[in-house]
Specification:
The chain is an all-alpha fold. The chain has 9 helices and no strands. Helix 6 runs antiparallel to helix 8. It is globular. 30% of the residues are buried.
């Protein structure tokens, strides 16, 4: 068994999706992306295996766990960070970009790893727990790229198309 088979979690762009579309649509978009990824893996497996074997291995039983870890945790954390930034006294667009886009996405990776370990410990999934503990550094290494990509897209969207970003309010962050 390889690490690839046991540790396949990545919250790419879930923070910026929450910022642009809001909590409810981010959950829906993340669920559709996960399902599309599962469908996309069938032809990838068919390259190394036969089509019959690839279709026989198609299994959606891990989809609820993948949804919890790759969608629900990052979206929930992004929504909490948005709530905290809205309650902060210092109002500035940079608190929105840096606080939610960069920092929120970076900490989301750490929460994702900790939540995965907690979930695997509670459910008694010893192989996944051991793999997650052994490779927790991967979550730490994901923090900067995840924060950079989410922060960059959030900044560009907010500066160039502020009306398209559901959670950004010009009157709130730019008032005197």
């Amino acid at each position: 068994m390889s690490i690839r088979d046991t540790l396949a979690i990545h919250p790419l762009l879930m923070t910026v999706t929450t910022m642009v579309f809001g909590w409810s649509l981010a959950i829906l978009i993340g669920a559709m992306a996960l399902f599309a990824l599962e469908i996309y893996q069938v032809p990838l497996h068919a390259i190394t295996l036969d089509w019959d074997v690839a279709l026989a291995q198609f299994n959606l039983s891990t989809l609820p766990v993948d949804f919890c870890l790759s969608v629900a945790v990052p979206v929930g954390w992004a929504w909490c960070v948005l709530w905290l930034v809205d309650r902060w006294k210092f109002k500035n667009p940079f608190t929105y970009f840096w606080g939610v886009g960069f920092f929120g996405a970076m900490v989301s990776c750490l929460w994702l790893g900790l939540t995965a370990m907690l979930l695997f410990a509670i459910t008694g999934s010893d192989i996944q727990l051991a793999t997650t503990q052994e490779h927790f550094i991967v979550f730490v290494l994901m923090t900067f790229p995840e924060g950079f990509v989410n922060g960059l897209i959030a900044t560009v969207m907010t500066v160039l198309y502020p009306d398209m970003v559901k959670t950004y309010r010009d009157d709130w962050y730019l008032k005197d």
